[in-house]
Specification:
This protein is of the alpha/beta class. The chain folds into three domains: 5-221 and 236-324 and 338-348, NAD(P)-binding Rossmann-like Domain (Rossmann fold), CATH 3.40.50.720; 479-500 and 516-590, Serine Threonine Protein Phosphatase 5, Tetratricopeptide repeat (Alpha Horseshoe), CATH 1.25.40; 592-652, no CATH class. It is built from 25 helices and 13 strands. It has helices spanning 14-25, 51-61, 75-80, 82-102, 136-154, 184-192, 210-217, 225-230, 239-245, 266-277, 308-312, 335-341, 345-350, 352-363, 427-430, 456-463, 482-504, 521-534, 548-559, 563-576, 581-590, 594-601, 608-620, 626-638, 643-652, and strands at 5-9, 29-34, 43-45, 65-68, 106-112, 161-166, 169-170, 197-200, 208-209, 255-257, 284-287, 471-472, 475-476. Strands 3-2-1-4-5-6-10 form a seven-stranded parallel β-sheet, with helices on both faces. Strands 7-9 form a two-stranded parallel sheet. Strands 8-11 form a two-stranded parallel sheet. Helix 6 crosses helix 10 (266-277). The longest helix has 23 residues, at 482-504. It is globular, with a radius of gyration of 28 Å. It starts with a strand and ends with a helix. Residues 445-464 have a biased composition (Low complexity). Residues 432-444 have a biased composition (Basic and acidic residues). One of its GO terms (cellular component) is anaphase-promoting complex. Residues 432-475 are annotated as: Disordered.
Length: 653
């Protein structure tokens, strides 16, 4: 099957941008229409109210599917200009539907949960539930649905006209005002400046990420034969491919619904933003009175959409947890959020809300400038200077393009992670793993991995220390799992890195650079050194470690230029948790010669990840050759669609 073409209306809008990206990721040829932000290259300037313009762009692009995202979607604007809103939401939809139906083009019409009355006790609504909009916006979208279904019925192509209802959306926005969810940040910021605001705490909403909607709307082709043989589950088709590739379409539903399952009022959304960014809610008052009878726009109480029809088609309902990893604070270590969120199916669902909150933070990152705001959770920075070790100090590193200390999304801009209470898991879930602080630091030789069991004294020391809080200079930490402890300490390191970067702005010249240091490295390093010391048996075995803290300690040592010891801890970490690609990248950043790579490789676990690491590091060292090309071919045979491996292949070409 050749490349398919998709046409997206409203391609420059909040949802349209993500729909375009979703199709492009599956190698569709994607074109779009827009108006004020059209570039006339991939997005054509088209007046959807002009049938001739619409017909021309359809005939020029010859799409197999059209996703109709363009609409007037703000209820207040619909009320202010009802005629223009009806022209776009209803008449333009009818005209587009007729053109697509006459050409046997699949049309996916994005509608809204506001087609329902939302009366208390009625939700969740199935696709065939009685409609009854409470405002003009909902009525125009319902009329648009009926217009589409009518045109396809008249053309005898009912199966190619599909309605997809979604609730209130949020996503990566050019400005917060572009999203009815993101815009609530403006209210939160006003409250920080002293303004008293009331926020609706009555109407229930289900904020849904635009990237998830795009994923559901686009198509997933079947896996290539080689890859399919290696997978236990074949990925389900999403709407476009499902409707295009099904031979007997008579049983396919004409109306589908997609929604998050996290219910929140506007007040709770603002509270979530405040929690994520460490801002006060003192000036935000919940309003539980319901609709103001004098308001121009009446909103429903609860329009929760049932997604049963999607599930019956075999289309995934669980939202894309992994899709936002690239937007997390671990820009080059995506496995952390994946691991924390999807340890198992139950944990994935329980942590779904937390993942949505990570997304929300990223969406507003460009607007937030916490450097100009009072940091509610600012810790007291340790004033001790770091004494750089006199061990091996190398220069002229072959650095990766993106390293942990170079990522623009540092935890220094995400202060709430310094308070890990929101992300903690119960201590008993992961085992008892905390020890009291000891004042004296003792240097130990490198720890060798053995199979020896801890001594009786060591077991007793661990057993009697579980109730004591872990401490690090600058404040005590609550009882945390190893994963949460890693995040808390990582936050401290990154906050120190941010302060270091701010201080470096005052550097007058090279001689002053020595005074600009990350003041968190020393206390965090001391804490981790004690942590490992107290968990090491007399025989040199390390008790109960999971690899997280080895990775962090290696990072601290690397920043202090103690690179040999850093490499030792990175190697320990990948033995314990090889799926942490960030640790492998840190190892790559310390390797400057082929001899170093060969020496390190002898101590690595033998698995597919170490194989990929060897390939990646060889490319970083410019070691192109037949052997490397053969290794890459083997990996491509297993992962033929991997963007990373395809990039490596291009570099070798």
């Amino acid at each position: 099957m050749g490349s398919r073409t998709a046409l997206v209306t409203g391609a420059t809008g909040l949802l349209g941008r993500q729909v375009v990206q979703a199709f492009e990721k599956r190698e569709w040829n994607v074109k779009g229409t827009g108006f004020s932000r059209a570039d006339n290259v991939s997005v054509f300037k088209v007046d959807l109210g002009d049938a001739a313009e619409v017909q021309k762009v359809i005939d020029d692009t010859n799409p197999q599917v059209v996703v109709h995202c363009a609409a007037q979607r703000f209820p207040e604007k619909v009320d202010k200009d009802p005629e223009a809103s009806k022209a776009l939401n209803v008449e333009a939809t009818r005209s587009l539907a007729k053109l697509c139906a006459d050409r046997s083009i699949l049309l996916i019409y994005i509608s809204t949960d506001y087609v329902f009355s939302g009366k208390e006790g009625e939700a969740p609504y199935d696709t065939d539930a009685q409609t009854g909009p409470t405002n003009l916006y909902g009525q125009t979208k319902l009329d648009g649905e009926l217009a589409l279904l009518d045109e396809y019925k008249k053309a005898g192509k009912e199966a190619l006209g599909v309605v997809l209802r979604v609730p209130v959306l949020y996503g990566q926005a050019d400005t917060p005002a572009e999203s009815a969810t993101n815009v609530l940040l403006d209210t939160l910021w006003k409250s920080q400046e002293g303004a008293k605001v009331k926020m609706d705490h009555w109407s229930i909403r289900y904020p849904t990420n635009t990237e998830d909607v795009g994923r559901v709307a686009h198509g997933r082709e079947q896996d290539p034969p080689r890859r399919a043989a290696l997978t236990t589950n074949v990925q389900p088709a999403d709407i476009a491919v499902k409707y295009l590739d099904t031979e007997d379409t008579s049983a396919l539903p004409r109306i589908l619904q997609f929604s998050s399952e996290d219910k929140m009022t506007k007040y709770e959304i603002v509270q979530t933003f405040a929690d994520i960014m460490g801002l006060s809610m003192d000036n935000v008052e919940p309003n539980t009175e319901g609709n103001d009878p004098n308001a121009s726009v009446q909103r429903p109480y609860d329009c929760h959409l049932s997604t049963k029809a999607l599930q019956d088609l075999g289309i995934e309902h669980v939202l894309a947890i992994k899709s936002q990893q690239k937007n997390s604070v671990f820009l080059n270590t995506e496995n952390f959020i994946h691991f924390l969120s999807t340890d198992d199916t139950t944990a994935a669902r329980k942590l779904h809300k937390s993942v949505q909150e990570w997304r929300s933070w990223y969406l507003v990152n460009k607007k937030v400038d916490l450097a100009k705001k009072e940091k509610a959770l600012q810790t007291n920075h340790d004033r001790l200077h770091v004494e750089k070790p006199t061990d091996i100090v190398k220069s002229g590193h072959h650095r990766l393009k993106v390293s942990v200390d170079e990522t623009p999304y540092t935890i220094g801009k995400f202060e709430p992670l310094l308070d890990m209470n929101r992300f903690d898991k119960p201590l008993e879930e992961f085992g008892k793993d905390f020890l009291p602080e000891r004042p004296a630091e003792k240097q130990r030789p490198p720890v060798q991995r053995t199979t020896a069991r801890p001594t009786t004294a060591t077991r007793q020391a661990i057993a009697t220390s579980n109730d004591a809080p872990a401490t690090v200079e600058g404040g005590a930490l609550p009882n945390l799992s190893q994963k949460s402890l890693f995040l808390a300490l990582y936050a401290k390191v990154m906050s120190g890195e941010k302060r270091k970067n701010e201080d470096s702005e005052m550097v007058m010249g090279p001689q002053d650079l020595g005074t600009v240091v990350n003041k968190q490295l020393l206390p965090v390093g001391r804490f981790l050194s004690r942590w490992f010391e107290q968990r090491t048996t007399e025989d040199g075995d390390l008790i109960g470690s999971q690899g997280w803290l080895e990775y962090l300690y290696g990072m601290v040592l690397a920043k202090e230029k103690n690179e040999d010891k850093a490499m030792e801890y990175f190697i320990r970490s990948v033995h314990l948790f090889p799926m942490n690609w960030g640790c492998w990248l840190e190892m790559t950043s310390l390797i400057t010669r082929l001899e170093d790579l060969n020496r390190v490789s002898r101590h690595l676990p033998q698995n597919i990840i170490s194989f990929i690491f060897h390939l990646h590091t060889s490319l970083e060292l410019y070691q192109q050759g037949p052997s490397l090309a053969n290794s890459l071919d083997q990996l491509l045979g297993i992962f033929p669609t991997s963007a990373f491996l395809l990039t490596c292949n291009a570099l070798l070409a």
